Amino acid sequence: MQLEILTPEKKVYSGNIYGIQLPGISGLFEVLDKHAPMVSALTKGNIKVLVDKHKTEHYAITGGFAEVLNNKVTVLVEGVH
To answer: How far is Cα 32 from Cα 38, in angstroms, rounded to an integer?
Structure first.
């Protein structure tokens, strides 16, 4: 599955991943390979990128949106810390 994390200033992450955990406005949710299409608002919290089954990366965000379409996750965030 392909992932892009974008802010208004720059591309924070771009690459293939195993899965991703996101802070939705109704709680945490996870997207894995071949997930159904969806759009979700994100709240302040942490993104956990599952690069593979053994490696993870973490990003603190201040809010934004996530779109899942055609096995690609696009995360648009206001800021990343």
So the answer is: 12
What is the C-alpha to C-alpha distance for residues 53 and 24, in angstroms, rounded to an integer?
A: 23
- H helix runs in the chain, sequence order: none
Identify each DSSP E strand in 1-81 by its residue range: 2-6, 11-16, 19-24, 27-32, 38-42, 45-50, 56-61, 64-69, 72-77
What pLDDT is stored for residue 44 in this prediction? Answer: 96
Task: Please report the pLDDT score of residue 40 as a whole number.
Answer: 97
DSSP 3-state of 58: strand
Write out pLDDT tens, residues 3-26.
Answer: 999 999 999 999 999 999 999 999
